[in-house]
Specification:
Elements lengths: L1 H13 L2 H10 L10 H13 L2 H7 L3 H9 L24 H5 L29 H13 L6 H7 L4 H10 L23
Helix pairs in contact: 8-9
Length: 191
């Protein structure tokens, strides 16, 4: 019932709205919105202190009008090149498409059977976690057969990056808390 009453009020408010708007716009002097009492009081105080401020505000500044009259804006459309018969009318790719191509494989990903997700293709200079573990194992088993230079060339890595991997990267370890008398505190990321 209340909704029907609202619809009736809304219909009355919107009745003849276009004609009322035109009538209001056709008036020579549009009545300004009423001022808040505190604003009106401040304006009166300002007029008493500086009576010429209101006159300056109403007057047109001839100097500024002269600046506007001296401005000239010429707009010209760029010339369009005529298409040669061998040229195609296909749109050029946008900037974002030129840097990044769409994926060629659109099949859904299979369920991961290993702990780490291994991509099909690895770019040069990059490693997956299993590849890094393999590098560590090879170098640890036989450093003479697998020196840093050979690992860098086999896996297409930078020599300094390979040295840093062997020096700083460690295999993942599970540390049981029950075996230690004082377990280390758990640190949350970002704290």
């Amino acid at each position: 019932m209340g909704n029907a009453l609202k619809m009736g009020v809304r219909t009355v408010q919107r009745f003849n709205a276009e004609n009322r708007a035109h009538r209001l716009l056709d008036k020579d002097k549009i009545r300004s919105a009423p001022r808040h009492p505190t604003t009106a009081k401040e304006i009166q105080e300002l007029q008493q202190k500086n009576p010429d401020v209101l006159e300056q505000q109403q007057k047109k500044d001839e100097r500024l009008l002269g600046f506007l009259q001296n401005i000239r804006v010429d707009s010209m459309d760029p010339e369009q090149q005529k298409l040669q018969p061998e040229e195609t009318t296909e749109p050029k790719p946008s900037v974002s498409k030129m840097h990044r191509t769409l994926p060629s494989n659109r099949k859904p990903l299979a369920e991961a059977t290993t702990m780490f997700e291994v991509p099909d293709e690895v770019p040069e200079g990059r490693l997956t976690v299993p590849m890094a573990m393999e590098i560590l194992a090879k170098h640890k088993r036989n450093p003479k057969e697998w020196p840093v230079e050979r690992l860098a060339t086999d896996y297409k890595l930078d020599l300094t990056d390979t040295q840093n991997i062997l020096e700083y990267f460690q295999s993942f370890k599970v540390i049981p808390i029950e075996s230690s008398p004082n377990p280390p505190p758990v640190r949350l990321m970002g704290r």
